[in-house]
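Example (one chain per record):
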Amino acid sequence: MEIILARYSCLVNYFLGYHFGMTDMGGMGMSANGPQLDAWRAVVTSHAAVTDRIQKALAAADLPPLSWFEVLSAVKSSPTGRPRMSELAEWLTLSRGGITKLVDRLEEAGYLERVSCAQDRRALQAELTAAGERMLGEMRGVYEAELERHLTTLSAHEAGLIAAALQKVTGSTCDAASREARVLT
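Predicted structure:
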């Protein structure tokens, strides 16, 4: 892992903290140099590198930041097209305060508007405006071009293996959440 990261050090702000003080992962059966931890480091580093490239490509195209794309995209792809603020916060792993500030900026720019929820007048939903639809389209082109540029370095077989492995990891988080919920009840 070290050799590969050194080769790409000009492209990635690699967080070296993953190497320090991690000789015994608290009885988890993983050492700091184990293959699972190396895989995790690769996921985090790759995510950071590709995210950085997307951010820079959006900025070079004079477009808003990636966080705006993520919110606009989440609203557009939601089942109703009008998700509640709490749903957006959960989907994007943001605090309620964080999503509120982000939606404030998007609303101020004219890309989203808050509308009352028909089922619960206390709740607000986000809805794309026509300008938001256009901006999402512009941003999507840049976003997809960057993803294609970097992800096509993987063969279909490699991409399938990675997807399957990460789905297992995600599944383990769901299993853990279920176990925790049973303990609390």
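Caption: The longest strand covers residues 112-116.
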